[in-house]
Amino acid sequence: MSILVAGGAGYIGSHMVARLVEQHQDVVVVDNLSTGHKKAIDPQAKFYEGDVRDHDFLNHVFESESIDAVVHFAAFSIVPESMEKPLKYFDNNTGGMITLLEAMHDHDVKKIVFSSTAATYGVPESIPIKETDSQEPINPYGESKLMMEKMMHWADVAYGIHFVALRYFNVAGAKPDGSIGEDHGPETHLVPIIMQVAQGKRDELSIFGDDYDTPDGTNVRDYVHVMDLADAHILALKYLNEGNDSRAFNLGSSTGFSNKQMLEAAREVTGKEIPAKLAPRRPGDPDSLVAASDNARTILGWKPQFDDVHEIIKTAWKWHSTHPNGYDDRK
Ligand code: UDP
Questions:
Q1: Which end of the chain is more exposed for a tag (fewer CB within 10 A), N or C?
Q2: SUPFAM superfamilies, per this entry (predicted)?
Q3: Which listed residue (141, 168, 212, 239) is catalytic?
Q4: What is the pLDDT of residues 23-73, one digit of tens each?
């Protein structure tokens, strides 16, 4: 039996595939390569190029392979882009979940682990954020993912498809051997942008706002290493295999770092100056997002290995400094 990884050519998906392959699992990857990279997919995984919104394509994959469970990463994930193009997010993210759940139902696949997000909470009612806190997204990206969580809930009620929704906070870093890492075009995320400034590929970092309600005025985020995230997905599959009920888990380090603190940490790790300037606020950014992730630790048995942002940044730097052009496959 194989694990189907939808979006396995993307940043987080490719690290998940690498981890599953390390554990001798049979892996089937589905990806339309709209933002992912073929070179990021472990060669031991079987790859089908296609779109999760494509009924016939998914049916073909489910008919050709013996799929035991699905791990779903195939989605757009850029908050500012979602503010400008909301329908793109509802079409791909929310629409993709409909087809995927239909295909699972048609082929009697009953387990899905889903890549959800802290953005489903919107402006937190308190910090750290608990899974039971209210979910009122303030951007279309978060809304599209909340709708996907709700679809899984009703598919569970109707068809008995059990799910785990993993609500990530900020993911960063790369596989420690530097063989795969983060490569978005255009890049919008803080850590890879800081790495690009350190590499000399950008002149400076723009810090989006310093008048937030946080200790140094810049946004506070909770960073998790991408391999620790992959491990949480593997534990979530185990949780579902053991017959447990559907539920959501936060995945964070429970410690917040401000944008200025991340910049300082990156200066220490890289030994580079990394020039930065203040820029206006970016729409859709809550002041702070920090997770209460005790449930993932106690119920799933999750033990993140990277508990220091310097260590996370060190792995990101290894990938960026050895792959100055990322996967070097842009058309
Ligand atoms: N950020 C920034 N400059 C950049 C990119 C991001 O100041 O060039 C800030 C952004 O406003 C947010 C934090 O870095 O406060 C993390 O943003 P990112 O896009 O990495 O992740 P998000 O929190 O949106 O998922």
A1: C
A2: NAD(P)-binding Rossmann-fold domains (SSF51735)
A3: 141
A4: 999 999 999 999 999 999 999 999 999 999 999 999 999 999 999 999 999
Structure token pair of residue 197: 């400034």
Residue whose pair of structure tokens reads 């951007």 in the numeric block:
139
pLDDT tens, 120-170?
999 888 999 999 999 999 999 999 999 999 999 999 999 999 999 999 999
- The contacts of residue 180 (CB under 8 Å, 6+ apart) are 14, 15, 18, 40, 174, 319
Nearest to 122 by CA among 153, 79, 84: 79
Taking the model in full, what pTM does it have? Answer: 0.96
Span from the CA of 118 to the centroid of ligand 1 (angstroms): 13
Q: How far is CA 106 from the centre of its chain?
A: 27
How many Cβ atoms sit within 10 Å of the Cβ of residue 236?
A: 28
78 lines ligand 1 (CB under 6 A): no
Q: What is the CA radius of gyration of the chain?
A: 19
- Domain locations in the chain? 2-172+223-251, 190-221+254-322
236 token code pair: 């979530």
Topology given in CATH for the domain delimited by 190-221+254-322: UDP-galactose 4-epimerase; domain 1 (3.90.25)
The CATH classification number of 2-172+223-251 equals: 3.40.50.720
